[in-house]
Fold:
Amino acid sequence: MTTVQVEPWSAMLPEAEGLFPLHWRELAVRQDKIKISIDRERYAILEQKNMLHVVTVRVDGRLVGYAVAFVLPHMHYKDAGDMAMTDMYFILPEFRRGAGLKLFLEFERSLKARGVVNAMTSCKVHSDNTEFLEGLGWQWTDKTFCKYLGD
Amino acid sequence: MGSLPALAEVVSVRDGRPADQLWQYHGHRQRLEGDDAGSGAGVRLRARRSFNGRALGSGEGGQRDFLGSGIQMNAHDKVIEVIERETGCAGLSAATDIEALGVDSLEYLQLITTIRREIGEISDEAVARACTVGELAQAVETA
Structure:
């Protein structure tokens, strides 16, 4: 049975460690230059400060996906209320048969329930979820560009 | 009968057709049971749809509806019908796992949008919680 629920980052992390490399391999850009290295200490600090929001997808208890957001007042609009910036979302390919919709609906519902007034998310150009996100009512407002400046 | 993708079985008639008369319509075999009666307008039929002996839901309609455009179905039956139509999956039951429909998240969202447009409201939370076709259908009926 597939379930979606809010969980603490620290509860998800042990199992998520096995998904992060798959997530990185499928979606990260400039993999030749930028290798995955999760900053566990800073995530733990954000969790302590209640600035993380984590929704998981589990199938018969096994972690198969997640959506993570940073939640805090926006630096430009501190009086507007908490805003959520999506950090990452991922579902193992073999469990994607509709689970993404469940994940995003619970992600939105639970963010709203904790008082978030505005949320931002994104998708890769090479893994385009625009139609799905717009179908859920998300508005395409920005284009994001990356440029590698290292050697 | 179990080999048919879905069955609409008339379980009782009031002022209806001879008992045990079998109908074939739109690929669904419809078995009439009940007291003998005429065939005029105003005949009421109660039917239940089932698959491999499992009930999917029930409905009631006039004979003209039944023979012309299908018996009036409750929301539960309509949800199953819409899912079968939109996904091409036949023989769905309330116990069918949504994952078994083989749709991705965009297609599932479009399916939910169609159900909302054609049948009725279903909350986001119910969609997030529903694991089976029956749970989805129940959420529409109780909305």
User: Anything to note?
Assistant: DSSP finds five helices and five strands in chain A.
